[in-house]
Amino acid sequence: MPWLPVPLILLLLASAAFVLGRRRAFSVAAASGERLHSTAWYHGMLVALWCLIPALVISLLWLVFADSILTRLVLQDLPRQMLARGAEQRTLLVNDLHNLLAGHVAGHNIDPVLRRAAARYRALAATGRMLVAFLMLATALLSASLVYFRIRPDLQARNRVEQVARAVLLLCSTIAVLSAIGIVLSILFESIRFFRQVPLTDFLFGLKWSPQMAMRADQVGSSGSFGVVPVLAGTLLISAIALAVAVPIGLMSAIYLSEYAGPRLRAWARPTMEILAGVPTVVYGFFAALVVAPFIHDIGARVGLDVSSESALASGLVMGIMIIPSVSSLSNDVINAVPRSLRDGSYGLGATRSETIIHVVLPAALPGIVGGILLAASRAIGETMIVVMAAGLAARLTANPLEAVTTVTVQIVTLLAGDQAFDSPRTLAAFALGLLLFVVTMALNMAAMYVVRRYREEYE
Amino acid sequence: MQVREDRQTAMELMERGLARRHRRERIFRSLGLAAVLVSIGFLALLFAAIIGNGWTAFEQSEILLDIDFAADHFDVDNLARADYAALVRQGLQKLFPEVRKRRQRRSLYRLVSSGAAIILQKKVMQDTSLIGTRQSIWLPADDAVDMLLKGRISRTLPENRRRLSDRQIAWIHRLAGSGRLKKRFNATFFTAGDSREPELAGIRGAVAGSLLTMLVTLLLSFPVGVATAVYLEEFAPRNRWADLIEVNINNLAAVPSIVFGLLGLAFFLDFLGLPRSTPLVGGLVLTLMTLPTVIIAARASLKAVPPSIREAALAVGASRMQVVAHHVLPLAMPGMLTGTIIGMARALGETAPLLLLGMVAFIADVPSHLTDPATVLPVQIYLWADSPEQAFVERTAAAIMVLLVLLFCMNGLAVFLRRRFERRR
User: Fold this and answer.
1) Are residues B310 and B385 in the same domain?
2) CA-CA to A435 of 20 to 30 Å: which in A103, A124, A157, A403?
3) Number of domains into which chain B is organized
4) Quick one: B87 and B173 in the same domain?
5) Do B248 and A177 touch (CB under 8 A)?
6) What is the ipTM of this complex?
7) Could you list the pLDDT tens digit for every one of the 425 residues in chain B?
């Protein structure tokens, strides 16, 4: 029996179970003359659930454990001398076997023993799949019929179905929370492996970043080539340029739109500006590399400055455009939240509109504005595509925006985009950088939330 | 007397200051307007640059050749093995019989795309009755010819710095003059997968990869996100744990997307051993990335359902699960859908985490399965943007236009849903 129709058959079975269970609830109630505890719908549902859940559990178990069971069975049948060579050889053997199974290996020079093992694996897997399919359907029928014959008028079907539904809800929310923990743990775990090879102090305070050197085993950790300072400096330089662009423009446009603009301008200008936040970052990257960087390069050449074609200025500028809405939309909200009475009081004292804004509205809205800027900074630091496409690769410790610098995100992508062995320090360094990025952006977000919550003025 | 003088000077002072203060007011105001105009101007510049570079990619130069499918050229049992490139060469020779020298001939043949032979092969395999006939067929020109026709190769450059020689340009003029070289609608761009040759490259593979990835993301993030929101909002006890989870989810929404790529690499690829470069893994990672957005939106729309509805349902004897399933969820559904669509739009434009999952590989085939190697539209844009060929610049911009149109449609749908929902309230 092929694998595919099994879910279909299962679904059909469950629907049949629902219909039968519902009918039985009616007939049982009619026969005994008692009222049903729950509506018949719930009885049907209960039978259907008992049909589905055990079968799903079995298929899940098979998915998780099939490979290890099958591999062990196949390895047992291999000649003894192939297995006697220690654990490492064994892992290699298993890898070869899996590559062969996945069809990655072509050609004729494959060990016939391995070929036979692969054939045996396939045969075993096919038998296993049939067995599991049979087991699934049998359990489905069995457990469904068990519940079916227990249907009585006083069976609390609704409560049981609701318990299952609640358990499913709980399971889903656990997944969401677990993914957060999963991020932290997986990155932390790989980073710890990295810090076992390169000391933490070398990483945090080293002034030289050249991960290529670590390819030679004798260089690891001794040359200090994993110093994160220049990479971090580049990130901060580009983010600072981005903020220097985004904060004035974002803040001024938020002020203008909420204090000066008429309703018509506001109605179309705000959504238009929000589009800037919705454009995919790869588009900004293309724009930076195709238009902005050459433009800045040309201008520099004209006034006699030596501007790198991957200058920090170009990527910072484009990144600034991208985060304008982050600054402006939160500022807009808090400026609108400042009550009318404060403004009226200021006008009553004879202040002009701009004086009111600068001396009354902005101080009142300051926490929200600072929060918005912090969030924008965290977006700038974590932004990847613009810098991958428009910033440099070499780590250079400089504050000159006309030179090429690299960023944390660029380094992560360059270290991992290829196909590397998973435990080389080069690969693991990317996880250490990821951890750093995670910690920094998380701290900025927390700070933003704290500022907004702590210093929020309560009016009325 | 003294008092009056003082007051006069105060008034004078104020009057004097007033002009300056009003001037400042005007400056401040125009600065604000300038900020709005600058940011909208940037947007306009961005779109102008994309459209200006990209619209030409929807047309492709093609050359009309008379191909003689002579019967003795083909082996009936093995049609794939015939020399189709020779057919193309014959067609070109017929147009320019005076070109005799070998080197000149070779530069003549370079005017037609190297994929022309494959196109002929496909045509013959599809319709064997072509054999023995003569056909006039439009075949794609080489990308250098295409670029010249679109004015992206300057004719005034010295010959050794151009991709086309003076002689080739003369041939191109002759072809264009006789109506045999024309820009026609570039169907290849929508029907082909990726290719190293710009004139043969298309976005179909990337679009299919994006659709498969989005399918995984939608099927996982919507039910899980809604279920999580329902549990947290309607069932979970209100305590420190609930607060912690809320902070956690809010923070997760602000984690840089590349960190999700690292998670996917460490957990899905290394630990679980799922296949690299596939829509399955890409979709799983994007699901984790979109989940917080969906959960936050779903919780907000659950909160917006008035408590009176819950109380009324409870009062007539509904269980809490019935209250949620029959009354709260239907009311909150449009808001949840809107949030999901916005999350999906973000996921559709996402590139960085997918770079780490091996979706940057060069893949020419159109994926049809969740475990086929695939790439997605934004990654395709990134790959093409990296290509040195000029012709890929306009294709990159054109692919961006397609992506932006898709995103506009999704966001438009979200706005439409929100409007409808608001009106009903």
Assistant:
1) yes
2) A403
3) 3
4) yes
5) yes
6) 0.90
7) 455 666 677 778 778 788 889 999 999 999 999 999 999 999 999 999 999 999 989 999 999 988 888 887 777 777 777 788 888 888 888 888 888 888 888 888 888 888 888 888 888 888 888 888 888 889 999 888 888 888 888 777 787 777 888 888 888 888 888 888 888 898 889 998 888 888 889 999 999 999 999 999 999 999 999 999 999 998 888 888 878 888 888 888 888 999 999 988 888 888 877 888 889 999 999 999 999 999 999 999 999 999 999 999 999 999 999 999 999 999 999 889 999 999 999 999 999 999 988 888 888 888 888 888 889 999 999 999 988 888 899 999 999 999 999 999 999 998 888 888 765 55
Among B171, B200, B229, the domain boundary falls at B200
The residues, ordered by sequence, that sit 6+ positions from A32 with a Cβ below 8 Å of its Cβ are A152, A153
Contact between A283 and B263 using a beta-carbon 8 Å cutoff: no
- How many interface pairs between A and B have CB atoms less than 8 angstroms apart? 252
Reading the block at residue A96, the tokens are: 């070869």
Helix ranges restricted to H, A310-458: 312-337, 340-348, 353-356, 362-382, 385-390, 408-416, 425-454
Let me know whether B268 and B313 are in one domain.
Answer: yes
Residue A250 CB partners (closer than 8 Å, separation 6+): A323, A324, A325, A326, A327, A328, A331, A372, A376, B35, B39
Do B375 and B256 belong together in one domain?
yes
- Per the CB < 8 A criterion, the answer to whether B124 and B69 are in contact is yes
Helix, strand or coil, per DSSP, at residue B115: coil
Of A67, A168, A324, nearest to B227 by CB-CB distance is A168
The strand pairing partners of A311, in sequence order, are: A404
Are B307 and B324 within one domain?
yes
Q: Which of B172, B200, B228 is the last residue of a domain?
A: B200
**Containing structural domain, residue B348:** 204-424
- Are B40 and A269 inside 8 Å of each other by CB? yes
CATH number for position B383: 1.10.3720.10
Domains and CATH numbers, chain A: 5-155 (no CATH), 229-454 (1.10.3720.10)
Q: Are residues B166 and B19 in the same domain?
A: no
**In angstroms, what separates the C-alpha of B350 from chain A's closest C-alpha?**
7
Do residues B263 and B411 share a domain?
yes
C-alpha span between B178 and B44 (Å, rounded): 40
**B49 and B179 assigned to the same domain:** no
